[in-house]
Design brief:
With about 200 residues, this protein is an alpha/beta fold. The chain folds into two domains: about 130 residues, HAD superfamily/HAD-like (Rossmann fold, 3-Layer(aba) Sandwich), CATH 3.40.50; about 70 residues. The protein contains 13 helices and seven strands. Strand 6, helix 12 and strand 7 form a beta-alpha-beta unit. The radius of gyration is 18 Å and the shape is globular.
């Protein structure tokens, strides 16, 4: 029987569409593609998630690597970036509250820069205080889909894999979870997630 539900954050509970933000800032398609490639699809961004660099350190490294785009990189990753891009999705939040009311234990397993997550956790304290445990890549120096960060979650909170469901928008992350014995849902929409969740609950009884 499933007793624990583990949530990814970006694109599961939170909106996270940096391309949309670039377009809203007025960049055309060509510049949007360039900035996506040099910032969000870069090895530096991965290392920010891993906790190797703070957001400020990562921003500085990106500016040094792409000096011709330095002004734009600073504009994109300014102090208001998180409030523009990382906002809660109401339907997903409602689903979270619903599973809490049903008595499930809830956890976070997310790739997120440590200082960026500190900001979100303080801003949305009303949500994070309701989780039973939190594992974030920037603190652990491990990132999904590395099995190591899943082992951290399972060991730290004494979770039994077969009693645990992981919801993530990345199929590779779910594949790792399933290889370790967890149940998994690839999040594509809240409607599909709720349908898959209901099916799993019936099967696990």
């Amino acid at each position: 029987m499933i007793k624990n539900i583990v949530f990814d954050l970006g694109r599961v509970l939170y909106r996270y569409w940096p391309r949309e933000d670039l377009e809203n800032l007025g960049y055309n398609e060509e510049m949007t593609n360039r900035l996506m490639a040099c910032i969000f699809d870069s090895p530096t961004w991965v290392e920010m998630d891993r906790g190797t660099y703070t957001i400020k350190e990562g921003r500085n490294k990106l500016c040094a690597a792409f000096p011709e785009l330095a002004t734009d990189i600073k504009k994109v990753l300014d102090d208001g970036w998180a409030d523009r891009v990382e906002t809660l999705m109401p339907a997903s939040l409602e689903f979270f509250y619903d599973v809490k009311r049903q008595g499930f234990k809830t956890y976070v397993l997310s790739n997120w820069a440590a200082d960026g997550f500190d900001y979100i956790r303080a801003r949305d304290a009303f949500l994070f205080e309701k989780f039973d445990g939190i594992v974030v890549s920037g603190y652990e120096k491990l990132i999904k889909p590395d099995p190591g960060i899943y082992h951290v979650l399972l060991k730290r909170y004494n979770l039994v894999p077969k009693e645990t469901l992981f919801i993530d928008d990345n199929a590779n992350n779910i594949a790792t979870a399933k290889s370790l014995g967890l149940h998994g849902i690839v999040f594509t929409s809240i409607e599909d997630c709720k349908q898959q969740f209901s099916t799993l609950m019936r099967q696990s009884k």
